[in-house]
Amino acid sequence: MRIHEKKIKYACENADHIIAISEQTKKDIIQFFNTDEKKISVCYQSCDKKFEQKISEQEIKVVKQKLGLPEQYFLYVGSITERKNLLTICKAMLINKDELNIPLVVIGNGKKYKAEVKNFLQQNNLTNSVIFLSDNEIAKALPEYISGDCFPAIYQAATALIYPSLFEGFGIPILEALWSETPVITSNTSCLPEAGGEGSYYVDPLIPEQIAIGMKEIFNNKSLVDEMRKKGKMHAMKFSPERCAASVMKIYKTL
Description:
There is one protein chain. This protein is of the alpha/beta class and 255 residues long. The protein is built from 13 helices and eight strands. The strands form two sheets. A six-stranded parallel beta sheet has the order 5-4-3-6-7-8, sandwiched between helices. The longest helix is centred in the C-terminal third of the chain and has 15 residues, at 222-236. It starts with a helix and ends with a helix.
């Protein structure tokens, strides 16, 4: 870890200019490496344009059948590490166990923390409530899953993406969900409000009760979901690949 810090510090001190992927990242660079803010510009990221495409109901049905996905589910996308906070989602599911029996589909993998999550699920009789696609032999052998080509269908079929990360540089899965017109439940900390915009549902990522309430609210409140989808798509349009490329090129031209 110290080696990485030294490398980043050296890069910050010697770079002609620094591109940060969010305002939060810019603040972190200034705070941790004492970098002059005039030396840093924010250029937001984009995501794969395939998430902009509306997937037909038939295609979604085929993808769900291939992967064995349930009719309704919440979605988690990201590495299964402590910072990504999957365990707190599972605690929220335990709170909702008697009121909202909808499984969670997980795209991503991990080791020690994943084992911790699975242990919690087993102890609380929730093992069948979380579907780890990284453990699905069909998914691991499916070309469109390996390439990610079926991910837009998985997003668009989801009730909501739940992304209560504790710390991020930006949060690409949020943007993928917004383009997919999938409601987002995410953290009110770090850079997540930048990525989520006005259309996302924000929670304290350390309080599972707040996530549990958000899950029930999105499942039961159609007018809220319609508003989230509309605002989310409008926010996502601010992060098009064209805008991203233009902002980076503008900086290069000043050097």
